[in-house]
Write a structure and sequence with these properties.
The protein has about 250 residues and is α+β, with helices and mostly antiparallel strands. It is built from seven helices and eleven strands. The strands form three sheets. A five-stranded mixed β-sheet has the order 2-1-11-5-6. The chain has a four-stranded antiparallel β-sheet with strand order 3-4-8-9, with no helix packed on it. Strands 7-10 form a two-stranded antiparallel sheet. Strand 5 and strand 6 form a beta hairpin. It binds ligand MTE and molybdenum atom (MO).
Length: about 250
């Protein structure tokens, strides 16, 4: 089993285990306890296997002619404009929060990590989709290097852009953070990420809908809870329009 898979199983078992213990505590300890334990274990295992399943991947000739830009397609700050103008030479991605070894990575640092390339389908709630090739390091590798602490339960993605005056952000739990296909993409179809698609870095979280894939990424933050961030719902669209925090597909 890969390190990612092993971690996800442990994380999921811990998350599901809390509920199971209280259920055991409430039930009469009796001969059916073991049957229940087995039922629970089977259900938990099925649920987790579901969360870890890979999103479909496609062949190069199945790619869409273009990936339209959606939501923010540009970032209107002087910092971003000048970073774009000099090819993001000084762009830094921070890995902060509940970690023992905070990181500040350049694009060259990110390119020097092991890379994953995947051709996947992006699905937007607005009713369009696009198949494209994305390349970048796995988020799990960064979190391991930053030595994420046991108290961390969620990963928050900070972005450079604002929509309607609010800074865009998103968050996922550790099962999605450590999913094999969760990468920090710096390339789209073999080219550096275009501005409209989130240059220089954007998340790919392939088992969730488009709005979870934070573009214009500036920082990755490990937190115990996202209650005190933004309006507390875990993301820009969740806060503004009540979109689901878990947007699994
Ligand atoms: N920072 C940031 N990330 C974002 C958005 C945004 O407006 N700002 N829009 C989201 C939505 S709704 C979708 S569908 C995808 C669109 O990605 P694309 O522009 O590459 O098609 O980015 C998501 N991530
Ligand atoms: Mo979207």
């Amino acid at each position: 089993m890969s390190e990612f898979a092993r971690r996800s199983v442990l994380l999921g078992a811990a998350a599901l285990g809390a509920g199971a213990c209280s259920r055991f505590a409430e039930s009469d300890a009796g001969s059916d306890l073991f049957d229940r334990a087995e039922d629970w274990h089977r259900a938990a295992h099925r649920a987790l296997a579901g969360r870890q399943r890979l999103a479909p991947e496609y062949a190069p000739d199945q790619r869409s002619p273009d990936v339209r830009g959606n939501g923010s397609v540009t970032v209107d700050t002087p910092e971003y404009r000048s970073a774009l103008a000099d090819g993001f030479a000084d762009w830094r991605l921070a890995v902060t929060g509940l970690v023992d070894n905070p990181l500040s990575l350049s694009l060259a640092d990110l390119r020097a990590l092991p890379q994953r390339t995947q051709i996947t389908r992006h699905d937007c709630v607005e009713g369009w989709s696009a198949i494209a090739e994305w390349k970048g390091p796995q988020l799990g590798v960064l979190l391991d290097r930053a030595r994420i602490r046991p108290e961390a339960g969620f990963i928050v993605f900070r972005c450079a852009d604002s929509l309607y005056g609010e800074r865009y952000y998103e968050s996922v739990d550790l099962v999605d953070a450590y999913h094999e296909q969760t990468i920090i993409a710096h390339e789209l179809n073999g080219e550096p990420l275009p501005e409209k698609n989130g240059a220089p870095l954007r998340m790919r979280i392939e088992r969730q809908l488009g709005y979870k894939h934070a573009k214009y990424l500036t920082a990755i933050e490990a937190v115990a809870s996202f209650e005190d961030i933004g309006k507390g719902k875990g993301g820009f669209w969740e806060d503004q329009y009540g979109y689901q925090w878990y947007a699994g597909i």
